[in-house]
């Protein structure tokens, strides 16, 4: 079966509305059940209390008339008894309560004038006197309609016979411990009269409240769903623009006027991430364009020199002497080194720089590499200082790459440090890493440029430069790629000597972080 797809606003609205409807139905059903149960318990307790009072009234009368003849077939006596139970005056104006002297007043004579006992005659008609108002009829379901009183022999005295099959509760009327009568109460199947009307009003109120709650929940669900979907629609539009190449996308988020605010931290964070992604892509695109422009510029110079030399030879202006051919070879070698460096950086960017891990002594290797630059430093009027611990440091590195790393750092110092100057190389072991520091004397680099020194083709010509000593600008970038291949870190800061200090952190066993040998 195919299920149609819905917008997220509609899905959220339906979900919230369904949850509210389910909650209303469950709570409403439990409320109705509890109301019925509680109300039935209340009615039962109320009837038990009335029935107990009725038994007490009958017991008080039975102390003077154990045969209960005063009640047998006497409707007026029964009504007077119910009135007394309810705290009302008797409807016929007589007083069924005991007199002031403690002697009972008889509502009806037990013997009629003709000498026939009342229990031997049918119940008399209670016709109202002319002009009298008829007594009010008991309400359906009232206690008077459901009470049956029998004497000790089980004969009917007053009340309504219970239909066959109906449940009744029986209470005994005792005098001095002897049973003189019994009261049977017909259990009410369901509330009637005022009680039924009360329950009906409660049901109507609950139904109205449930319907109102569901309607309000649906409206709130529609509003909340629209509010939730608005930032998601903005995200969808933004990602479509990014896919088309528009990297100027920015979705305002937060509490500012016009900003999107979903009310959910995750959605707001997602909007911020999309904004950051657009900015990063824009920066990457700008760097790519700058990278292409700088590479083309770096390649143009040696190619222009080669073209000029070749054209001059073709025109006969210059002869292909060994000196000219050597100059052409130098230009070709410079192009070759530049292309190899660019290839190395491209490979490093995809985390695939070829490394061959071998075990060795880091102290001896670094000392040997640094000493190779002492002669050149002296020729340039610079003093190269090597501070080594002098103890063996067992490491597992690609020593060829480490040599390239330290060589690039020292070449950078030799190229940009003015004479007379000072270059210092030092290293020490801390925990499971070796810290290598290469620093030089002025000129220095502005703080804003320190973080950009490792960018490809970046130069700070105005601050650090030596005529005729310009490089390709890839040395520090390659050094950083080598450090990353060894799972280390590299940073630049101002040196105490007045120039720049480059700090390199190299793990002693970087291969433990990557259990494979990378090869070209």
Description of the structure:
The protein is an alpha+beta fold. It has three domains: 1-93 and 141-246, no CATH class; 276-348, Orthogonal Bundle (Helix Hairpins); 353-512, Heat Shock Protein 90. Helices cover 47% and strands 14% of the residues. It is built from ten helices and eleven strands. The protein has helices spanning 8-62, 75-86, 194-243, 265-315, 322-349, 362-371, 374-379, 399-416, 447-450, 475-485; strands spanning 147-151, 156-159, 168-175, 178-186, 358-361, 382-387, 394-397, 421-430, 433-440, 489-494, 500-507. The strands form three sheets. The protein has a five-stranded mixed beta sheet with strand order 6-8-9-11-10. Strands 2-1-4-3 form a four-stranded antiparallel beta sheet, covered by helices on one side. The chain has a two-stranded antiparallel ribbon with strand order 5-7. Strand 8 and strand 9 (433-440) form a beta hairpin. Helix 4 packs antiparallel against helix 5 (322-349) and helix 6 (362-371) runs parallel beside helix 8 (399-416). The longest helix is centred in the first third of the chain and has 55 residues, at 8-62. The radius of gyration is 54 Å and the shape is rod-shaped. The two termini are 54 Å apart.
